[in-house]
Design goal:
Order of helices and strands: EEEEEEEEHEHEHHHHHHEHEHH
CATH architecture of one domain: 3-Layer(aba) Sandwich
Shape: globular
CATH class of one domain: Alpha Beta
CATH superfamily of one domain: Alpha/Beta hydrolase fold, catalytic domain
Mean pLDDT: 96
Number of helices: 11
CATH topology of one domain: Rossmann fold
Strand content: 5-15%
Number of strands: 12
Strand order of the largest sheet: 1-4-8-5-9-10-11-12
Helix content: 25-40%
Structural class: alpha/beta
Low-confidence stretches: none
């Protein structure tokens, strides 16, 4: 009997605050994706806050980034491997006031926390593993549309997300313009750049090079590619934070006053190792691969005449937010969105020493912009 490895949720585990919805596609024959793959059925895990009004006009969709999930706000456990990733933004009297709005956050297709992904079991009770299809951000939105239909939400009052979540906001606004009244886009661009693809591809290679990866079919082995996932997270963390923050926080100091010349770690090395090890306790390596590759495929202009033409078709009121120290998604990418979106505010720039992760951590600044956008 093998030992269950951490990092993913399956039926029978504590559901926590999750709700679930199952779909078989518009025609009942499943979902066929852009890359040609197919799933007979998809289950979506989601969480909600507040109350949907009688007119169903106060619904807000929040879309998470790469290693997050549906648990936007709340405590860690039971059933949730981490505390809410946007605590302080959503709740009674907060920027997204749940006395006024009904908030929904789904775990993304390909994820590891209740929505169908590589760790999920197929119709024969076997993990998908390497058989999980290639998916795109557009495919993920197709599944989220099915969830909105089941919830009876014809149009979202507001939709918001950062990084990978913002990719989905853009795809919603372009692919389903009548269903998105306001779109709030944080720390992303209209298409993944060569630099972003390069960074992501090395992270994927680190995971696949781990001897425990087994081409993605490691679930029954009793092991998981933890070292590869930890290295991937370390590589990502360098892009999520700024060089100025690293310099101010760590400099050239050693960990615990050790001596790097004698094999001890620099403080920044210890930090990256800790971040990697922490992720392996709550996230699945296969999901990291599938979602990273979906982000690499991100291009709202694909099949739509290019980025300018696609963004120019957005009918929503668009609020674009960038982080001034973001080296992964620099401000020029948000400026492009503002330039092409017909009904966009000027770019809102968040001042932060943190870098890309500022879209998660600068809650006070983000909340002021989001609260204003909700009531325009």
């Amino acid at each position: 009997m093998t030992t269950r490895t951490p990092g993913y949720w399956r039926p029978g585990d504590d559901p926590g605050a999750r709700e679930f919805a199952a779909f078989r596609g518009e025609t009942g024959s499943g979902f066929t994706f852009e890359g040609g793959g197919h799933l007979e059925s998809v289950t979506v895990a989601f969480e909600t806050w507040g109350t949907l009004n009688a007119a169903r006009s106060n619904a807000v969709l929040v879309l998470h980034a790469l290693t997050a999930d549906s648990h936007v706000v709340g405590d860690k456990g039971p059933g949730h491997p981490a505390p809410g990733w946007w605590n302080g933004l959503i709740g009674p009297g907060l920027a997204i006031d749940t006395n006024e709005f009904f908030v929904v956050c789904p775990n993304v297709l390909g994820g590891a926390q209740g929505t169908t992904g590589p760790s999920s079991l197929d119709e024969n009770g076997q993990p998908y593993g390497s058989r999980f299809p290639v998916i795109t951000v557009r495919d993920q939105v197709t599944v989220e549309v099915a969830l909105a239909d089941q919830l009876g939400i014809a149009a979202w009052h507001t939709m918001l997300g950062g990084s990978m979540g913002a990719m989905r906001v853009l795809e919603w606004a372009i692919g389903y313009p009548q269903r998105v009244r306001r779109a709030i886009v944080l720390a992303v661009g209209a298409a993944s750049t060569a630099d972003q693809i390069a960074q992501s591809s090395l992270q994927v290679r680190a995971i696949k090079a781990d001897p425990h990866f087994l081409q993605g079919d490691y679930y029954e082995s009793g092991f998981a590619p933890r070292e590869g996932l930890a290295i991937a997270r370390g590589l990502a963390q360098i892009t999520y934070r700024s060089s100025d923050e690293f310099a101010a926080r760590f400099g050239r100091s050693s960990q615990d006053e050790g001596d790097p010349l004698r094999g001890d770690l620099y403080a920044v090395e210890s930090y990256l190792a800790y971040q990697g090890e922490k992720l392996t306790r709550r996230f699945d390596a296969n999901s990291y691969v599938v979602l990273s590759e979906a982000m690499n495929h991100h291009d709202v202009g694909r099949g739509r005449g290019g980025v300018a033409a696609a963004v120019g078709e957005i009918q929503s009121r668009v609020t674009v937010i960038g982080i001034d120290s973001d080296r992964l998604y620099p401000l020029e990418l948000q400026e492009e969105l503002v330039r092409h979106a017909p009904d966009a505010n000027s770019l809102f720039v968040i001042s932060s020493a943190i870098g890309h992760d500022g879209f998660l951590l600068e809650v006070d600044q983000i909340g002021k912009v989001v609260g204003g956008a909700l009531h325009e």
